[in-house]
Write the structure tokens for this entry.
Amino acid sequence: MIPTTGAQRTAPRHRHGRIAAKHALRLAVAGIAAAVAVAAAIWRDPAPAGRPPWETPAPEVSAAHAAQARELAAYLRRLPDGGGLHRARLIDWTQRWRNRPIGNLDPPALRRLLKGAWFVFRALPTPDGDGDVPRTWGVKHFDPTGTLWVCRDGKLQRYRYAWAADLVGAATYVTAEPDAERPRSGDAVYRPIAFEPETGTLAVYSPSRRPDGRWSAHIGHVERRFRAAFAAACPELPQPPHETASATAPRSYAAFRADAEAGGRIFRRVRTLFPQDPARPLAMGAFFALHPPPPRP
């Protein structure tokens, strides 16, 4: 049984609540087929493909991951056509696909969490301590117009972003160069997202160029309002007119880091598909080894 949050226990019983729930379910299912159809174009993995996870010995998984996999499988069984998981048989299962983290937010929940918000993050080092990106703190702003601003190491970058869904219907976003009218499947990068409402911790994962197929992560928290410390990290970061940082706000990276390490707001009412540990996420390979997809129709 999937645990319920406070938001789930107090779900609206009127007609508009039921319509919203059905719409959210349709959005999650609709993105699955598209995500798998363009997988070959997105994941150009140099490593050779191996046998699928359900045809190889199951990896050793923690009790927490086994429980998460059971809850995710229970959720997917409730979706039309079993969530379309038979499409997992179309994937070339490289090591990068096996290591791919699984997100745990549905599309409406992710949009409510990130649209117009600021994601304060740091790079999460890999287990051997070899990170793919600097471990300094940074901030990303998901402008409602579809522009993603990324500030790290004092440098400001601009991308286009759009919401999407991955193989299990979990929400994600894709990015593309700023000149693109909107991110397209052929030149976009899918980024799985895990969220822990109890702590407010969010992780956004990205494929690395490592030959072992490991993924890198940006982990941190979400702020709904612009903070003066953001201007200290990146003075060129666009600021809402009604929340412009004052001239006396601290302008050093140390001030921004202290503000970032203090943590942010906890979103206990954000609905997740299943519990997920942002720092140690359940991966695709482990899930499908424990719960093989159904045969193709």
Notes: The radius of gyration is 19 Å. The chain has nine helices and eight strands.
